[in-house]
Amino acid sequence: MTQTHARWNMANFWRHNVFFLWHPVMALILILVFSFYLRLTGRRHHNATGYSASFLQQTYFTLALLMFYLAMGSPIRLAAEHYLFSAHMLQYALLTMVIPPLFLLGLPEALLARVWHHGTWSRLLAGVTNPVVAILLFNIVFAGFNYPPLLDVSLLSGWLYILESYVVLILAITMWWPILAPLPVKGFTPSDSWDQDHIELGMVSRIYQLMYIFFNFALMMLVWFYIIDTHVAFYSFYVHAPRLLSLTPLADQQLGVVILEAFMGLGFVVAFVASYSRYDDSHWYD
C-alpha cells in the first residue's frame, strides 16, 4: 500500500455520511442521559432524591459519557467496524479500561446502595460481581469475542458486533467492581481478611485487589501475547478491508495489541494506586 493510496482511502473515509461518522442520535441520547443524571444527583434535587453527587463524581460521569461517545459514536466506531483492527482495539480499550471505572466512580454511593439492596438485583449483582466470577466471565467472553473466526463473523453481520460491544462493556463494569469497591462497609479496613461477612458490592482487601489486578492482567496478556508474537495476520475481515493507513494488516494487528496493552497497564496501575491511597495506613502500627 503506497502513501498515495492511503491518503486516497482516508479522504474517502471522511466522505461518509455524517450519521455513520458522528452518530448524532447517540449524541442526543447521551445528552438526555446526562441531563437525567444531573437532575437525579444535582444539589438542587438532593433533598428530593437523596442521591447527591460531588463535583468530582459528576466530572467522572461526564468523562465516562464522553469516552462512550468516542468509542461508540465517533469515527473510531466506523474505522473499527470496517477498516482497522487497531481501531477495534482502541474502541475495546475505551469500553473495558476507561469507561467502566469512570462510570462507577461517577455514581453516588446512595444510588448504588439502593440498586444493590433491591431484591432480585441484589442477588444478581452479588453473583456477577463476585471476584472469581467477574474475572473469569469477563476474560472468557472478551477472548471469545476477539477469537479471529468469531470476530470476522460479527464484523460481517454488523448488528452482532454492536451487541458484543455492549456485552463487553457490561462485563467490564462487573470486572472493575471488586477493584473500585464502590460501597465499602463502615468499619472495614483494607487490611482485614477476605471475609464474606464484611464485604459489600464485591469489596476485597488491598492484598486481594493486588492479586485480582495481577491475575486479570495475566489472563488478558496470555491471549494478546500470542497475537502480537506472530508473523501472520489472523483477522481475514481486516486483511481484505480498504487500508486507511500505510500499515500492513499484520502491522495493524500488532499495533492494536500494543494499544490495548498500554490501556490495560495504565488503567490497572492507576486503579491500584488510587485504591491504595484511599486508606489510612495507621492500622499497621496499632
Q: Nutshell version of this structure?
A:
By secondary structure, this protein is mostly helical. It contains 15 helices and no strands. It has one domain.
Topology:
Blueprint: H1 3-13, H2 18-21, H3 24-41, H4 46-49, H5 55-72, H6 75-82, H7 85-105, H8 109-116, H9 119-128, H10 131-145, H11 148-157, H12 159-180, H13 206-228, H14 236-239, H15 249-277
Give start-end ranges of low-pLDDT stretches.
Answer: 1-5, 185-199, 282-286
Beta-strand content estimate: under 5%
Integer-rounded radius of gyration: 21 Å
Please count the helical segments.
Answer: 15
Distance between the termini: 66 Å
Order of helices and strands: HHHHHHHHHHHHHHH
Q: Give the helix level as a range of percent.
A: over 70%
Number of domains: 1
Arithmetic mean of pLDDT: 83
Main sheet properties: none
The strand count comes to 0
**SS content category:** mainly alpha
